[in-house]
UniProtKB/TrEMBL annotation:
Residues 24-272 form the EAL domain. This is Cyclic di-GMP phosphodiesterase PdeB. It comes from Brevundimonas mediterranea. It comes from the Bacteria. GO terms for molecular function: cyclic-guanylate-specific phosphodiesterase activity. The chain holds residues 250 to 531 of 531 of the full protein.
Length: 282
């Protein structure tokens, strides 16, 4: 490997291979140092109680200044490099710090955890360690489990999530309805809430099949006594539909984007994104 990475510029039959390896290695090292030195930001997007239009909690979303298009690629890379667990914990650390800042009040926060961070005990042990001093604080934390990388051992993951829930931390299935594993998760993981994937929410006004799917998901959640949250709400029309269907909470650009500071006061008239406009996430 060492030899391949040497930037000697010599003609080399393996140049294509070594170039891509080099690129990967450089990114991996850069990413490793970003995680280690905490050189990333966390932004906060409000989750709103739809009936009262009040901010219920915030979702913490990772932001890398080098990447304006949202963290999805970096998260995927972290999963591939086996760095996601330390990254998710580094995010948790920043979020807890923000919750403990002077004048923060009783902020409730949701943090994302990759399925692969539930593959061993470390994430849960560390999160419990970080919150050991404050049982009340745990009650203000929500962990959103994403399906980005599938849970290899779902029973073991459920035991780990149960350890969180015993302490008052809430658990939510994220992006429900987007992937093949959603219903398997719902069957096998004991959780408090389901966040319905934006692909079922965004075009609710026009997508009748999507609306039927969403109606069924809401029914199912109601019968399981789970809270429902909708993501990617961009229009008032969608809010009306969601309320009619019985969805309790929502998040989206209509209410506010992820911002450096959690703002409990919603902007009275958030600009509604025009249909068809192309915008980066965030
Ligand atoms: P997610 O957990 O489903 O987060 C919601 C995503 O939807 C965010 O993208 C948010 O900016 C975007 N979004 C919010 N409202 C709207 C809207 O009205 N319209 C549209 N089009 N998009 C909206 P973001 O920040 O790019 O994050 C992408 C994903 O990266 C997240 O999806 C989450 O799965 C993952 N992620 C973010 N932070 C972390 C983290 O700390 N750890 C892990 N494991 N994953 C993270
Ligand atoms: Mg999430
Ligand atoms: Mg989500
Ligand atoms: Mg999503």
């Amino acid at each position: 490997i060492e030899g391949c990475l040497k930037d000697d510029g010599l003609a080399n039959p393996q140049i294509a291979f070594s170039d891509s390896l080099k690129r990967t290695f450089r990114d991996a090292e850069a990413f490793r140092s970003v995680v280690k030195s905490r050189e990333f930001q966390v932004h906060y997007q409000p989750i709103v109680h739809l009936a009262s239009r009040s901010v219920h909690h915030f979702e913490a979303l990772a932001r890398f200044s080098s990447n304006n298009n949202g963290p999805a690629n970096a998260i995927r890379m972290a999963e591939e490099l086996d760095l996601i667990e330390s990254f998710d914990l580094a995010v948790a650390e920043k979020v807890l710090k923000r919750m403990r800042a002077p004048g923060a009040g009783l902020l409730k926060m949701a943090i994302n955890v990759s399925g692969s961070s539930l593959g061993d005990d470390t994430y849960v042990e560390q999160l419990l360690h970080m919150t050991a001093g404050s049982p009340a604080e745990r009650k203000r934390l929500i962990v959103e489990v994403t399906e980005t990388s599938a849970l290899a051992d779902i029973e073991a993951a459920n035991r780990r999530l149960a350890a969180l829930r015993e302490t008052g931390i809430k658990v939510c299935i994220d992006d429900f309805g987007s992937g093949a594993a959603s219903y398997d998760y719902l069957r096998k993981l004991t959780v408090d809430a389901v966040k319905i994937d934006g692909s079922l929410v965004r075009d609710l006004e026009t997508d009748e099949l999507g609306r039927d799917l969403l109606r069924n998901i809401v029914e199912l959640c109601r019968s399981m006594k789970l809270e429902t949250i909708a993501e990617m709400i961009e229009t008032e029309g969608v809010v009306t539909e969601l309320k009619a269907l019985g969805v309790e909470y929502g998040q989206g650009w209509l209410f506010g984007r992820a911002e450096a500071e959690p703002r409990t006061q919603l902007a009275s008239a958030a600009p509604v994104r025009r249909r068809g406009a192309v915008e980066a996430w965030g």
